[in-house]
Amino acid sequence: MLKRNLWKLVLSVLIVAWAVSELLPLNNQPFVNYARTHVTAKPTEFGQLLDQAVARKKSGQALSEFVGLKQIAKEQKIDLTDFFPNINIESALKNVDKRNDILLNELLHRSKSKLQLGLDLNGGIAVTLEVDPKLAGADPDNVRQEKLAKAIEIISARINAFGVAEPVIRPIGNNRIEIQLPGINTKDNPEILENIKKPAQLSFRLVHPTLTPPAEAPAGYEAATLDYEGRNGESGTEELFVKRIPEMTGEAISNAFARPDLYGRPEVILQFTDKGKARFAEVTREIAAEGQRSGRPGRLAIVLDGKLYSAPTVREEIDSNSAQISGNFTDREALDLANVLNNPLDLPLVVKEQYEVGPSLAEDAISSGVRASVIAVVLVAGFMITYYMIGGVIAVATLAVNVLAILAVMASLGATMTLPGLAGVVLTIGMAVDANILIFERMREELNLGKSLKAALIAGYNKAFVTIIDAHITQLAICAVMILWGNGPIKGFGVTLAIGVFSTMFSVLVTGHIIMEWLIEKDIVKKFPMLHLLSKPNMDFVKWAKPAFLTSWTIVLIGVAVVFYKGNKIYGIDFAGGDVINISFHERLDPSKIRATATAAGLGDIDPVYVSELGSGKETLKLETAYGKADTLLAALQKDYPAAGLDKIGESQIGASIGKEVEWNAFIALALSMVVVLIYVAFRFEFGFGIGAVVASVHDILMTIGVFVLFGYQFSAPMVAAILCIAGYSINDTIVVFDRIREELKLNPNMKLRDVINLAINRVFSRSIMTSLTAFLAALALFLFGGGVLHELSFTFLVGIITGTFSSIFIASPVFYWWHKGDRKHVEAHSDVAPKYEWQGTSRASQ
Asked: What is the mean pLDDT of the chain?
């Protein structure tokens, strides 16, 4: 047994060990503490520098100790790498400031936990910046993408200067940049947003003709470092002194682009405005004249946002509409320099979306999220152990491996844990036991046939294997749609669930399997007791299909009608745009008073919501207003009710244009997921099965949306992610039923299609109820004990779990039955369901 399964054992141990290493350290360490305890050379001297940095932070001279230490090293010309010889910094890099930057960023990274918390759990700022397309011009998409990449590089340099740990800076489309700054708030750092979104200045500056660092900088000059790369891949730096005051700015440039010269070597072309042409001629004339007098050609530096990008030599006056920069460029360098000269941040960036979470709100989110997650795990584990006993214990062990693997992969990918992500993990826990339940129920059937425990184990795994693979592949396909077409929470949900799909299959089919085999083959486990919900159900599901179908779709139509009746009122700020503000208070205000204040302030209809978490009982006031009006409303309430102690603890803002994109991407994701399901199920099973699966999924989506709106909830991006998740859950349940129908068609060649469907559903009915119950318990814990977005997501899950279980029995299977007109010959003409015969053992008791 050990030799046969040695690879499973080794792989399981390696993955668990890797997961533990990826997740350590579990908690962030303060930068100063980490640096002080990990210095490996001259600790006393370095400790004094840290004390100076701490003093600078306290006095307000530096944003953080990180920034303070960087300032001190620069001012005193200290190479901090001397204190950390164990951290390898490229020896060819001679610039001390750059060496210090690399070292400090590495120390900051090492001081943080590998699995970082998102803004909703850690507090911080998220902002989406946009350049007005009308101002940015009609550039081709590839040019815009290059400019966006350069803009991200500039903004990253600005943020890194503040010492923000693990910032997220990424493009959205071709004219937006999303930035997430965990642990930062605008109250303590009011200048950070202005520094991020300010225009970058492109300037042309004189290079000192004779002096270079490390000499003392001459008056009016400052040190700058030029990074370069040779055509053979070699890289290096050059230290220069450049003039502080520029000779001309980027306003002189109308366009710049890279192209090959006559010999195929890259060069950069500058095109000037009329004023720029005259000024450039004047500047180059003076540089060329000075070079002739000194016998050494002068240079003109190109500086963007304080960084030196190039310093071409000027040998003569250039008096034309354009100029070229040639030299030993690589193609990449030429393109980068052209992007610099076009200055992607020459226009102010507009804040299209801003989301800020205060520390107190983040602490509450962590408390409620962790509490709800722990309760969910305990409920699922308790149920599995109670119902499946030994099997339940094994399922919980594999579940532990599963969760460990999910978190480790997220950490290795640099993902952050958010509330929606936490909900995704918890839901994965509820659904992950489905594979175990499928195997256990198959083993029950084999044991009932009189097979030994070892034979039942082999047959149970073999018969469940294909079903598990099919179910998880369809879920994975929907995850792929969420990742490729979704954005924000939708994409994050897709990544979390996709990781869960792989980790579930591994933990159940590899780790769980080897544990079961070892326990049974070593005679440690001699019986496999399980409780019975329904020992041998024998219900005519097809008989009740039509009334159930009509009743269900009637509810769907009512829900859809309500959606159309409410119109735009069903949209939350992700779609409609606006402000949401979370307020703590000492005295609870009556909603009518809040509405009266809002009306008096000219803010229209306001819907105050008091959010209370079960368990802690702590309440916060949540208010939604039109875009840019949240602070106005808060100020009016504070004025009218000073004794209430109202204080803002969190705020989010989103523009309507963002909402339109979310809405469109959500629609595309939903539509594509249905197409993917139809194609896969039709390919793996048969087209009639595919039609049944799609109709059931559409039913579940519309039913969930309708009930969601009927209960007064509003659409948000996380809610769309939850609906897509429900589509995956529904398909998972449907695939199990379809796989059993296909199997029974092969095993019962003379049975009518109606009887085959009833037989198949009856045989998987217990498994469907058990799976739904475990997922329902997990979602119920989130609903009862979670707050904020967890409450809305879990409500969606609860509705979706019920409708998904119902639809796999009363929607998907009947549609398949009606598609083939109730005739199994019609099925056999379109599918490989040839009868299959096998020997079966008979227990002595039945003889």
From this structure: 83
